[in-house]
Amino acid sequence: MATFKHFEEILAWQKAREFCKKIKLLTDKPEFSRDYKLKDQILSSSVSIMDNIAEGFERQGNKEFLQFLYISKGSCGETRSQLYRASDYNYITPEEFNDAFFDALEISRILHGLISSIQGSGLGGSKYK
Prior knowledge:
Elements lengths: L10 H17 L8 H23 L3 H27 L5 H28 L8
């Protein structure tokens, strides 16, 4: 397993940051202008992906980091679900849906790999040295 000194080095966080920007651009479209609830939900869940990776990492314990990675992965699934709603309501095009959906799947796969790697390492994190 790779050792990270800063959460910014984590590929999942980097991808989540780009994904968050993409979701922000999508929700800036006029089609979202009246659906405040969906706009707020999809923005919040996409932000949660990157923020939970950062928060979990900064706690410096692998058990806590894992907990936050699972939350991040859950937020990724939540965002995918909201993308379906945005598509169903014709707020985004099929191409925009596919692009964002597959980015979310990639982030979820990366998170799954990171979780598996940490679980298999047997390390407790720098907090418990």
